[in-house]
Automatic annotation (TrEMBL):
It comes from Pontibacillus salipaludis. The keyword Transmembrane applies. Belongs to the BI1 family. It is found in: Membrane. Pfam families: Bax1-I. Coiled coil: none annotated. The chain crosses the membrane at residues 10-28, 34-53, 60-79, 85-109, 116-140, 146-167. It is a multi-pass membrane protein. The lineage of its organism: Bacteria, Bacillati, Bacillota, Bacilli, Bacillales. PANTHER family: BAX INHIBITOR-RELATED, PROTEIN LIFEGUARD 4. This is Bax inhibitor-1/YccA family protein.
Amino acid sequence: MKKHELLSKVLRTFALSLLVATVGLYMGQWVPPALFLPLVILEFILLISVFFLRKAKKIGYGFLFLFTFISGLTLYPAISYYISSIGATTVLMVLGVTTVIFIVLSLYAWKTKRDLSFLGGILMSALLALILVWLIHIFFNLGSAAILVITLISVVIFSGFIIYDINKIKNGHFNEKDVPLLALNLYLDFINLFLDLLRLVKILKDD
């Protein structure tokens, strides 16, 4: 399969995964509040299993769409919160901005002649550090200024992941069996960037 054909299929699958997540988000309004924590735990378990399944190339379309559907369900409380606090119009505007950023970064990653595979280790280390800081914040409450800085750093990290994952498709050795995993990577990049931008808008509005 040619690189541009692979990218096209990955992007179609990524778009479909967003649609599945949207269905999950819509259905989240009927999920009892007591079930959200078990769903979050299930989502976390599935996310952890990705690290093991991808080595054996056992991530298929069923796994991808199961994960994105559950992700959509668990997103419902967060999206509802942002709709109530910053307004549905603003949430949609942030979604549009996220989409534009995704497209621009993807075009750069695909058009550049550089192999950006070196970013993988840097971004993963930065992500682990970010998770550690968030855990510290949960227990010690670092304050709104720190959260603003953390959120900005998170925006940069997931923007970097978009560039890295698209560039990886161009320069890596993948085939059709890898499409679900590659689409899942892009889904996680997009959703995390979207949530970061929503958080950023909320922080700036409160200030």
